[in-house]
Amino acid sequence: MRSGKLSAALESMATTGRRVAEVRRAVGLALLYPGIILAIAYASFLFLVLHLAPVTLAAYEDLTWRSEPFLAFLVWVGNGAIWWAFLVPAVVVIAGAFGCQHFARRLLRPDSNVPTTAFDYRSRKAGVLRDSRIATFAEDLALLLQHHAPLHEALVLAADASGDARLSRAAVELSRRLEIGETITVDDPALAAFPPLLGWLMSVGGESETLSQTFREMADRYRDRALLSAHRVMTYLPIAITVCVGGTVTLLQALAVFLPLVTLFLELGNPLRG
User: What b-and-e string marks burial along 31-40, b requiring 16 or more CB atoms within 10 Å of the CB?
Assistant: First the structure.
């Protein structure tokens, strides 16, 4: 309302919310296929310890006259399946739900510690939400400066509109100092909440029209970066989870099934080598 373009400010905030919803939906979809793989693997493990391992161990003992420790362990695990067969899936589902919630909060946390160097700030720890809110802040600040709002007032209004609590606290401190005529330097601790380039622009100041145009360009830059990060999450997260979960499950199943069989074949071949 202060800038006279309420619709533009609301559109910027709506874009931020939409970006967050897209990433959360991507995380949920990314867990669907690995969950199916895990369910199939668990059913296969039950078949292994309840049927395949006892049969293989019996054949091993009949043919070699001794037991195989790994198979014996699997049979022992299967004997206690009545106690853990339903407990394990429940624990995995609960742990997975809490893990996904923690991951989503860490990825999208608005008040995460933001490093002060340009290189560290480019890390993904900043999150999609952080970049989107920085874009909202820069765009609203540009609108306010374009309509000749004082910088100390524009900082507070734009930071509050961004929805980032850390930006709001830093903006209040900067606004108070600017209003009483203090000079803000580039290495000022109050600028640590802002990305380096935005902090530098606020410290050097300038004409309203020039600052407005620069902040608008910065808003486009951070919004593009947020969009790129969201696309990366939606593209690579399902692949990463599938490879990690599927690869681990496949390795465990291979060791559980083929290792005892290889040992059995080697034992059967021992008399021939003698």
Answer: beebeebbee
Rounded Cα distance between 173 and 167, Å, is 10
What domain range is 134 assigned to?
9-269
Chain centroid to CA 122? 15
Evaluate whether residue 3 is within a structural domain.
no
Phi, psi of 188 (to 5 degrees): -65, 135
Measuring CA to CA, how many Å separate 271 from each of 64, 170, 244, 262, 265? Answer: 10, 80, 41, 16, 11
Q: Is 134 in contact with 162 (CB distance < 8 Å)?
A: yes
Amino acid at 102: H
* Whole-number pLDDT of residue 222: 85
The answer to whether residue 274 is domain-embedded is no
CA-closest candidate to residue 124, choices 233, 40, 12:
233
DSSP state of 37: H
Structure tokens at 238: 């399902």
Q: How many domains does the chain have?
A: 1
CA distance 82 to 62: 28
Asked, for residue 140, whether it belongs to a domain, the answer is yes
Q: Per residue in 86-109, pLDDT tens?
A: 888 888 788 877 766 666 565 555
Among residues 227, 116, 210, which one has the least CA distance to residue 170? 116
- Has this prediction a pTM greater than 0.85? no
- For residue 111, the SS3 value is coil
| CB contact set of 219 (below 8 Å; sequence gap of 6+) | 12, 135, 136, 137, 138, 139, 142
Per-residue tokens: 102: 């923690």
